[in-house]
Amino acid sequence: MTRVLPIDTSKATAAPGARVGVLLVNLGTPDTADAAGVRVYLKEFLSDRRVIEDQGLVWQFVLNGIILRKRPRTKALDYQKIWNTEKNESPLKTITRSQADKLAAALADRTHVVVDWAMRYGNPSIKSGIDALIAQGCDRILVVPLYPQYSASTSATVCDEVFRVLARLRAQPTLRVTPPYYEDEAYIEALAASIEASLASLPFKPELIVASFHGMPKSYVEHGDPYQGHCVATTEALRRRLGMDASKLLLTFQSRFGNDEWLQPYTDATMKRLAQDGVRRIAVVTPGFAADCLETLEEIAQENAEIFRHNGGEAFAAIPCLNDSEPGMDVIRTLVLRELQGWI
Ligand SMILES: C=CC1=C(C)c2cc3[nH]c(cc4nc(cc5[nH]c(cc1n2)c(C)c5CCC(=O)O)C(CCC(=O)O)=C4C)c(C)c3C=C
Ligand SMILES: [Fe+2]
Ligand SMILES: [Fe+2]
């Protein structure tokens, strides 16, 4: 008996040609800054087993009965504070698109390279990105998860989704995925340059700098996720490059979600403690985010600034992420060109 693969050939037939596709991928964000948009986004995000590892009945009840009833409304208000009203989209989308445009411009002399971008959750989806690259004749694709530090909840889930899309294709493109770049020279150099430039432009001199990374449940690391080690390696490399010790460049973890213990020290508790201990002027850098987003523009620059000031702090600066800046694009370009070797 002939076995027929259940393959979707509607859009994804490869055009003849030998082009190389580069797909930048970041986490994802709601399509609209209202409760309905945030609900759709959170439902997809928090139903991912890579993010919430125990998707059992208790979680189904908590997610559908509690979180998705309340959180979309409160988070929509947060998104409204940072929304790009000109483009009517989340900053994460604006910045990721610009990173892709600038990378395409930098690779313009390689006419057979096509650059596109996608979001792991929401839009534009990874499927639409891969379909578009294949439709332009790409038979090789380099996927670039925009996370300097690897974690299963971010980098691995990008690969999961890419492989789900490829699983439906008869004529699959050849695939490469960029590795985490948590201590690459270009990345550390770009972070250091951006910190030095920000410090030089501030109207005050911070007594210390806090490097705040997105947190995760401690148990994920105990089960083998290398994320914490990557964050430590980035921070230590930055300390060496800036000539600062652990008392001048602190490492913290933000964005705790739920009641489990997450990686410590927590950013918000550190803000409170520092201010109460008499620190008056600080700067916060967020090296784990390739682009500014809700977690940097609202949680750090607004919420944590407020916690610091409320407890006696006087001056707080949130240093922008590398985004599509010259040093930021240097990181992405260097990574992509290195991983495209042999293909271009
Ligand atoms: C268990 C939950 C979560 C884990 C683990 C997690 C890891 C993780 N996340 C990022 C990057 C981003 N997260 C963002 C938002 C966000 N993250 C979680 C939960 C977990 N993240 C939630 C529920 C949300 C949505 C906001 C909220 O409801 O609080 C974002 C911002 C997206 C945006 O729209 O701007 C980013 C980016 C990393 C790097 C990471 C790795 C440990
Ligand atoms: Fe997150
Ligand atoms: Fe947050």
TrEMBL record:
Pathway: Porphyrin-containing compound metabolism; protoheme biosynthesis; protoheme from protoporphyrin-IX: step 1/1. Fe(2+) binds at H214, E295. It is found in: Cytoplasm. It catalyses: heme b + 2 H(+) = protoporphyrin IX + Fe(2+); Fe-coproporphyrin III + 2 H(+) = coproporphyrin III + Fe(2+). Pfam families: Ferrochelatase. Its EC number is 4.98.1.1. Keywords: Cytoplasm, Heme biosynthesis, Iron, Lyase, Metal-binding, Porphyrin biosynthesis. The keyword Methyltransferase does not apply. Gene3D superfamilies: 3.40.50.1400. Catalyzes the ferrous insertion into protoporphyrin IX. Belongs to the ferrochelatase family. HAMAP family: Ferrochelatase. PANTHER family: FERROCHELATASE, FERROCHELATASE, MITOCHONDRIAL. This is Ferrochelatase. It comes from Bradyrhizobium iriomotense.
